[in-house]
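Re: Re: ligand-bound prediction request (bumping)

Still looking for help on this. To restate: I need the protein modeled with 5-phosphoarabinonic acid bound, output as structure tokens. Inputs repeated here so nobody has to scroll up.
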Amino acid sequence: MPALTIDMTCLTSSGIGEEGLSESELQDVAPRAAVAVQETRKAHAEGKVGFFEAPRARDVASRVLEYARRLPPEIENFVVLGIGGSSLGGRALYTALAKPLDPLHARSKGMPRRLFFPDNVDPCTFHALLKLCPPENTVFNVVTKSGSTVETAAQLLIVLDRLSRALGEQRVRKHLVVTTDPDKGPLRRVVRDMGLESFEVPSNIGGRFSVLTPVGLLPAAAAGLDVHGILDGASAMARRVADETSVFRNPALLLASALYLHDQRRGRNIHVLMPYADGLYDAAEWFRQLWAESLGKARDLKGNTVHVGPTPVAARGATDQHSQVQLFMEGPDDKVILFLTVKERGLEVQIPRGVLGEYDDFAYLGGHGLGELLDAERKGTQLALTREGRPTATITLERQDAIALGELLMLFQAATAFAGSLYGVDPYDQPGVEEGKRLAFGLIGRKGHEAYAEAASQVMKALGDPRFIL
Ligand code: PA5
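Reply:
Sorry for the wait, this slipped through. Here it is.
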């Protein structure tokens, strides 16, 4: 029994009439969809890509769990220093499965320690975090595949200095653990030189596809999550989607094809993922990065200039019913809304009967639950969108547990890889980000980037004096 189902009826004409995709549109794309599966398999067979295989690496699971078991009880904080794909997956697992209400103040009930994913280099946040996490009670997990990402490097230097001042050089090693490329990159050299404990990001798995490697699994283990359950779920989904070439039988392929068709044929290039469960909002942010960075490309695989890519949006139900849903309903018909929900929440908060019972405007709520209300709001929103002919789909997790999360993450990774093939782009690179990174290195004076410093100053010169600073 899958722990996740996806209802895509309302993406098609069966659900929303002619605004939806017709059977013949889906039939048209079917051969290219089959090729997308074959290409993804080929990239795996040639060892260029490895995300489907990640959940089979049970030795990695054993290692991260063994590391977490060795963490002494005084380690109350586990801080992940990474950004983008080196942070979002771990955070998605943590917030979905550890269910922290406010990680800045409390450890989740029953969890061995609290996790932080500062991600950004905002000095105000980082300063506050360092104050909250005394060196003797904290392990810092430095996560960077390239080993040279500027934000992570800056955080590492601050933390290294702080740890060695507070604890002395000898004890630093017990408070640092590194996750990086097995061989390449400057951080691997630091690991060797300092004798630091480390984990590997397989060289054929890029940042945003790395949640099921130590990038996501080490934080998961440190938080006491069910690492094997996550991998079981991911493996189960990989079995469903990795080889099935029929668009009508493969959920990841149908999702990718439907979103691709809505974008390319119907002009619906904004793809919203809207969880109706607070713990899944970070999974929506993880998906946003995966979809954006993988599919937004200037050139196709043949080198033609194409400038393609749907714009992903993360929204939160029911909160954003009071924010974005007005736009989704009545604004431009350029969106597809993917709802994400949980069938068995495992907890309900009852609304008492009889309180303000004499007022009809309140009495109707008595005897219902907050989860029930959330579900009714999601269904109501979907039905309203359906009546307007706006395409939607609903992903339902049986429970918000490790298996379902593993399935969800693998579903989206596979859909992204297949969509890359449909768009004709390389979903695994990010040349546009690299350029900005190099210019930033130039601006901050990194050795070897003098040409970028020069290029940056040329661009600034060309801009001339600012004319519209008001
Ligand atoms: O998905 C990606 O490849 C990126 O988002 C990276 O994860 C991000 O830029 C961080 O890179 P690194 O892990 O090399 O520090």
